[in-house]
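Handout, section 3.2

Students often ask what a structure token actually looks like in practice. Rather than define it abstractly, here is a full record for Der GTPase-activating protein YihI. The first block is the sequence as you would receive it.
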Amino acid sequence: MNSPKKPASKPKKKYRKTKEELNAEGRERKRESKHRGNKSGSRYQDKSSSSQNNGQNNIVDPRLGSKKPVPLIVDDNSATKPVVEKKQPVVKEKLTPEAELALLESDDRLDGLLARLEDGETVTAEEQKYINTCLDRIDELMNILGIEYAEEEEEEDEEKLDDIMRILKSK
């Protein structure tokens, strides 16, 4: 007799996971990967409770610094150490008025700022203050040295020439 054939075993179909199952697996993987390293606050926990102290109850705080003893009383031994001498502040030499005037006249910063002003550019309040202090000091030094402005001499000469020209024209 022909025996009835058993149906051939069907290959198993791959089961597709739903969105919810995939999300749950992802959360589980994330939860597992998060728990690495030491527990929070482990730095401040008493480590001596987990290890034996050989009968000693010394609590060691890992935050403390150097264990080097600091001498509280000055001994003769510490007096023999070389003492660092305090350096006296360097006193600026007073310049003669001529030298100071020469320094101010050759000041590159002042020259640059004055050139900017002549070109019509604006300067900041700090730069204007610097210009004013330098020019005032130059005026003082020129008065001390008895130097007159060349501009004033030229103006006086021009005024004299103008006066002479008026007199000649009126005749």
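Discussion prompt for tutorial groups: Residues 97-145 form one domain. How would you have guessed this from the sequence alone?
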